Amino acid sequence: MNNNVMEVKNLKVYYMSEKGPVKAVDDVTFSLKKGETLGVVGESGCGKTTIATSLLRMPSPPGKIVGGQIVIDGIDIVPLKEKEVRKNIRWEKVSMVFQGAMNCLTPVYTIEKQMWQTLREHREMEYEEARKVMIKYLNYVGLSEDVLRRYPHELSGGMKQRVVIAMGLFLEPKVIVCDEPTTALDVVVQAQIINLLKELKEKLGLSFIFITHDLATEAEVSDRIMVMYAGKIAEIGTNHQIYGEKGPMHPYTKKLLEATPRLHHRVEKLSFIPGTPPDLLDPPKGCRFNLRCTEVMEKCYKDEPPIIEIEPEHFVACWRCVKK
Amino acid sequence: MKENKQTGNLLEVKNLQKWFPVRKNLKEMLAGEQKHVKAVDGVTFELKRGEILGLVGESGCGKTTTGKLVMKLLNPTGGQMIFNGKDVTESTKEETKKYRRDVQMIFQDPYASMNPRFNIRDVLEEPLIIHKIGKTRVEREDKIKKALNEVKLTPVEDFMKRNPHMLSGGQRQRAATARSLILNPKLMVADEPVSMIDLSTRAEILYMMKEVQRDLGLTYLYITHDLSTARYFTDRIAVMYLGRIVEIGNADDVIDNSLHPYTKALISAVCEPIAGKVNLVKEVPIKGEIPSAQNIPKGCRFHPRCVYAKPECWEQKEPELIEYKDGHKVACRRYKEILKEK
C-alpha cells in the first residue's frame, strides 16, 4: 500500500553560474501523503522556492535539475519532455500558488479571460461549460460570480489571492504547491486564506506543499514540517514533534523556534542565530550548519551528518542525534 | 514650554491629519468638488522620553504616513506636533533641517536605502557633511567608528571599506541604524525595520536596537504590522485603523486585555508556533474588508466590520479615545458592554 502522491528522491537542483554550480537543493528526499500538508521552512536562500519550482519542473534559469527523481502519481517527471510536462503534469497533476499572487494576474485582462485561457489550453470545453467550471471554483474559494467581469486592480489583495488559488484548483491537480501564499497579506486576510486552504484540503482531499519562512504560520497549517538549511534537509517531523513539548531535535530548528516571537508570551530576550548561511557555491565541509551551531562537535567539521529516523516519522540530520 | 518638559513627553501629536487630494473627474470638476483620501484622520498620541511606542495596523491604515509626518517628510493637513516643548508643525527650511537632526528614520528596505556606489564610510559620512558636523576628515571618522561600534559592526575598519552589496541584510540594517545614530538623534522612527530580514537574524537586530536605545536613552516610534514583534520590542502599543488610533496602552495590556473589537480580531488572527492547531479553523471576529480611506464610514469607522456593532455605533458621532485604566485608552462606545458579554 502506497498512499504517497508525491515522492522526491535525491533531488539535486543547481544554478549554473559563471563561477560554478550553486548547489541550491542538494540531495533532498521526501514524500507527500494524500490529503496531507507538508510545510517547508527555512531562511531565504535555503532552497525552498527552488524546490517548489522544481516540482513543476520549471526551476528558474540558470537553475537545472541535475539529478534525482520526482515521482508524481507514479510518473517520474524529471526525464519527461517539456511538451509532455506541459500537457500532462503542470497544472494537471501539480499546480502552484506563487509568492505575491497579486502579481500573477495580468492587469489588462479580466479575471474571466485569464481563467478561460488556462481552461482552453488544457480542456476541450465550450465557453458555456467553462464558465460553469469557473463559477464553481470561485464559489469554492468564497468569491461570487461577479468577480469574473472584474480586472485585477478592482480586487483587494485577499480576493486576488483567492482567484489565484481558484485557478490552481480547477484542473483538479493532486498536489498544490503554495509558495509563501500569505506573506504579503495582512494578518486578518492571512488567517482567512489559511482557513480557506484547510477547508479545501478537507473538502477536496487535496495535498499541499506549503512553503514559508514563518514557523508560526507553519504550526497552524502543516501536518508535517520539513526544515531546510543551505540546500539540505535539517529535520522532518510531524507537527507535534516539532512544536510539541519535547520540541525539535536539530539545533537549527531549536534556535529558529526560539527566535520566533510569540504574541501571548512575553520574553525578555529572543535568541538568534549569529552569522549568515553559507555560500552555496562552496558549502563548508561536514555539516553545513557547523559555523553557526552552538552544539558543534569535532565530527561536524569533518563529515556530513546522515539523515536518520530517530522516532517514527521524525528525521534529523545531526551528529548529536546519531547513537553510537 | 516648560510644562512639556516636566511631563517628560518628547513628542506630542494632537489631532494630526493628512488628506491626499484625489484626481477629479469631469463631473466633479464642474461641480467644484474635491475628494480626499484621508490617510491620517485625527491621530493623537504622545511619546515619553526613552520609551518605545509601537504603531500597529494593517496595510493602508496610515501608520507609515504617520511616521512620515513625524519625520516631517510630509506636511500635515491639520493638527499639531510638539517636539521637545516646541511647536514644530509649521517650520522654516532651516528649522526643519535642525529638526531632522533630532529625529532620524530607519527604513524598511535596507537594500534600497543606501547608495550602492558608496562604501559604508561614505554612507555614514554624508549626514555629517550635510549637517556640518566635524571639521576634519579625522574628526568625522572618529564619529563613524563610534557609531559602527555602537551597532556592533566590527571590525570597524573592515566594514568602513565595504560597499552595501557586500553586506547581508542584517548587517545593512545595522549600518542604517549607525547612519541614523551618528547625528545623536533624540527620536528614531523605525518603519518596519525587520520585516525584510531573515527570521534567524531578526531577533538580533531588534535586540541591537533595544541595546542602543538603552545606552543612549533614545525614544523610538516603531511602525509595524507584526503584533508579535511589537509585543517583544515595545513598551506601549497604539493600534491604528483607517487613519485613527483605536486603542493605545501598555503593550501587555493591549495584547492580554484588549478592549477594542478590532484589536481583538487582529490578535485572534496572529499565528503562534504551538502544536495541535492544524485541524482547527480559526475564528476571526471581523466582517468584510477594509473600506477605502476615501469614503470613511459614518459614526464609528469600524462599525461595518464590527461583530458587536449596534445602531448607536453608526448613528452617533465618532467615539474619542476613552481612558480605561493606567493610560490604556480605547475608542469604542460599547467596550464596557463588550467586556461584560465575555
Q: Your description of this structure?
A:
The complex is a heterodimer of chains A (324) and B (342). With 324 residues, chain A is of the alpha/beta class. Chain A contains ten helices and twelve strands. Chain A has an eight-stranded mixed sheet with strand order 6-7-8-3-9-10-12-11, sandwiched between helices. Chain A has a four-stranded antiparallel sheet with strand order 2-1-4-5, with helices on one face. Chain A has one domain: P-loop containing nucleotide triphosphate hydrolases (Rossmann fold). Chain A is globular and about 65 Å long. The two termini of chain A are 33 Å apart. The longest helix of chain A is centred in the middle third of the chain and has 18 residues. Chain B has 342 residues and is an alpha/beta fold. Chain B has one domain: Rossmann fold (3-Layer(aba) Sandwich). Chain B has 14 helices and twelve strands. Chain B has an eight-stranded mixed sheet with strand order 6-7-8-3-9-10-12-11, with helices on both faces. A four-stranded antiparallel sheet of chain B has the order 2-1-4-5. In chain B, helix 6 crosses helix 8 and helix 8 packs parallel to helix 9. Chain B starts with a helix and ends with a helix. The N terminus of chain B is likely disordered.
Annotate the secondary structure layout.
The complex is a heterodimer of chains A (324) and B (342).
Chain A: E1 4-17, E2 20-33, E3 37-41, H1 48-55, E4 63-72, E5 75-76, H2 82-89, E6 94-97, H3 111-122, H4 127-140, H5 157-169, E7 175-179, H6 187-204, E8 207-212, H7 215-221, E9 224-229, E10 232-238, H8 239-243, H9 251-259, H10 298-302, E11 308-311, E12 314-316
Parallel strand pairs in A: 3-8, 3-9, 6-7, 7-8
Antiparallel strand pairs in A: 1-2, 1-4, 4-5, 9-10, 10-12, 11-12
Helix pairs in contact in A: 3-4, 4-5, 5-6
Chain B: H1 2-7, E1 9-21, H2 26-31, E2 36-48, E3 52-56, H3 63-70, E4 78-83, E5 86-87, H4 93-102, E6 103-106, H5 120-130, H6 137-150, H7 156-161, H8 169-181, E7 187-191, H9 199-216, E8 219-224, H10 227-233, E9 236-241, E10 244-250, H11 251-256, H12 261-269, H13 311-315, E11 322-325, E12 328-330, H14 335-341
Parallel strand pairs in B: 3-8, 3-9, 6-7, 7-8
Antiparallel strand pairs in B: 1-2, 1-4, 4-5, 9-10, 10-12, 11-12
Helix pairs in contact in B: 5-8, 6-8, 8-9
